[in-house]
Design goal:
The chain is an all-alpha fold. It has a single domain (14-157), classed as Serine Threonine Protein Phosphatase 5, Tetratricopeptide repeat (Alpha Horseshoe). It is 77% helix and 0% strand. The chain contains six helices and no strands. Helix 2 (32-82) packs antiparallel against helix 3, helix 3 (86-99) packs antiparallel against helix 4 (104-116) and helix 4 runs antiparallel to helix 5. The chain is elongated and about 90 Å long.
Amino acid sequence: MIPFGSKFYSLKHRPEIVSDVACALDGGISQPDALQECRSTTIEFSKKVFALLKRHKHARTHTKQHEHLAKATFFEGVKCFQQGILGEAISHFKVAAEYDPKNKVVLYNLALTLANIGNLTEAKKHAKELLSLDANDKVTLELLSKINQALRNQKLDS
């Protein structure tokens, strides 16, 4: 049985079965097409590996840049909130949430600010997102409870 004849392994340039190792080595040297194909395949494979490594490094850098942008945008939102410019604070918090969607502090402040301007439905949506990250967070549970109470009060007033 020839090991290279299986369906899992095939060669374009099949080696001959020989009894003498020296003969086999001479045969390999005398097949420059096979050697060149092997070199070309190795070079292509190396290029693909380096491209993947480069993308992975870029992805990590990209993530760090997003974290920095999220922090900077979040702090702009906090400044606006403190100055009472809630609409602009919401805009900053939304951008920060896009950059870092699992940041609990950003999502909490977004939900809180939305609730403060009376946009309770959207505030509830973001509070639920926050609970999906940490279902036992007491502060978020309290915020969601207050939002739900405010929504019930709105329905009663209608």
